[in-house]
Amino acid sequence: MRMLVGLVVASALSWSCGYGLAVTTPTPAIASEAKTAPPMPATVQGYRPGSVVRIEMRIADDTVGSTVHGFPVQMNGCADTIKTVRYRSLGSPVRVATVYSTGRPVEVEWQKASTAPDIAGYLQFNACEQPLFWGSYADVVIEYIEWRAAP
């Protein structure tokens, strides 16, 4: 297990896949059976919220993970920002993992790093991580908030 700003995330698997990436398979904080995205938290202790950003993307490959185009990720100051992410697939269930990225291409097989397929979920991670999705032709709606460290 690893501790992220007071949130314990159980990791089913943590490994390095080359390209300078470390992949962690988080257990979603909230699993959704109602097929709606879980709510965002009202607060993250020690951090101030930014605006809610909404992105829609298409997942077209069940063997190679897809990062979210335009998702903010950095290589330094990982603890300066916490990101909360909620997502919902508008089609088939998707798998999700988080990766530490150096900006290089990401090619990770879902069999090596994935949660159980789900329609919706919630993730919380630091500024140096980003979500990675797998699925078979699913449109996914993603909302995230960047929480900046408060003085």
What does this entry look like structurally?
A hairpin with a 2-residue loop joins strand 3 and strand 4. This protein has strands spanning 2-4, 7-9, 11-18, 21-26, 47-59, 66-67, 81-89, 95-100, 120-126, 129-134, 138-149. The strands form 3 sheets. It has a 5-stranded antiparallel β-sheet with strand order 3-4-8-10-6, with no helix packed on it. The protein contains no helices and 11 strands. Helix content is 0%, strand content 50%. The chain has one domain (2-34, 45-149): Jelly Rolls (Sandwich), CATH 2.60.120. By secondary structure, the protein is mostly beta strands.
The outline comes out as globular
Distance between the termini: 28 Å
Helix content: under 10%
The CATH class is identified as Mainly Beta
Largest sheet: 5 strands, antiparallel
Number of strands: 11
Low-confidence stretches: 1-32, 107-113
Share of residues in strands: over 45%
Structural domain tally: 1
CATH topology: Jelly Rolls
Mean pLDDT: 75
- Count of runs of 4 or more consecutive helical residues: 0
Which architecture name does CATH use?
Sandwich
Identify the strand order in the major beta sheet: 3-4-8-10-6
Radius of gyration (Å)? 14 Å
